[in-house]
Structures are given as structure tokens and as C-alpha cells.
Amino acid sequence: MVPAHGAPFLVVDTHKLTLTVVARHDHVLERFDNIAIGSGGAARLHLRGDDVTPRGNFHVAWIDRHSRFGEFFGLDYPTPRAALLAWREGLIGGPGLRAIVRAFQRGRMPPQDTALGGDIGIHGLGGDSPAVQRRVNWTDGCIALTNGQLRRLARWVHVGTLVMIR
Questions:
Q1: pTM of the prediction?
Q2: CB of 75 closer than 8 Å to CB of 60
Q3: How would you write the pLDDT of the chain (166 residues) with one tens digit per residue?
Q4: What CATH number does the domain containing 13 carry?
Q5: Does residue 89 form part of some domain?
């Protein structure tokens, strides 16, 4: 389960609403409870506008330190695996599938404008009240932590960090 280079990775449990930072030999470095996911729940695929958090293995592809949500750790969604599944289900065409696969082969961000959407990541609340986290899953498909949790998480997150959403 640990990446080959032994760097910490993140495990998001969409049922228990936890985000866990895991190190070598499955050693838990920190666990964040009461996270929020998409208001549409979690599923194998996120489609543009469905507010679903996609399940799967992703990597932090970019970090926006000036997001309206505090920091934003952007994920490399949609992945080739998600694109192939969507293509098989008739949700995207061959050109969309090829564009996503080609982006990964070239080490670039996949297109964010297909039917699979994009801009999925991990972020804080920004100026919103922490009470929202205790009441409802409220994101458009992202994973949200309180601002304090996000600041503690940030020390382990870098471009390339593995994020496993289950």
C-alpha cells in the first residue's frame, strides 16, 4: 500500500468521513475526523456537475496556496482508468479518452473540461463556518477539512502525494 519511495500518503474513507496520513509500514501519522465530501456522495466516477467525490487512486498534481478555501491540493482527476470506465459506459467519446490518456503519458494534467469534469481536490473552509462540516457533506466533489486540519495536513502534502479515496 505504501508508495515505493516510502513517502507518506493519504487515505480518505468516504463512509467514516476520515482522512488519514499513512507512512511506511502502514504507520498512521495523523487522522482527521469529520471531513466533508461531495453533496452527491462518493462513486467510481465524478461527472461534471454531479457533486460526487470520485473513488480511486490519485496524486496531488498542483497546489494553490491562494485559493478561496485556504490551500487547494488539486488531484489528477480524471485518470486514464476513470476515462476508460466512462468510455465503456458511453459517458465520453474516444477523443476525450485519448486526450486524458495522452495527458498522463506526457506527465501533464488531464483535460478538466470533459464530461468527467475536474478541479477535484482537498481544501479547507476558507471563510465559511466550521459548523458546516458537522452538519452536511457540502462540496462539489472535493474533500474538505476545517482550516486548522488543512494547515496540519499541509506539512505532509506535496505535488506527487498519493491520495487513495475509498
A1: 0.92
A2: yes
A3: 445 467 999 999 999 999 999 998 889 999 999 999 999 999 999 999 999 999 999 999 999 998 888 899 999 999 999 999 999 999 999 999 999 999 999 999 999 999 999 999 999 997 667 777 777 899 999 999 999 999 999 999 999 999 999 9
A4: 2.40.440.10
A5: no
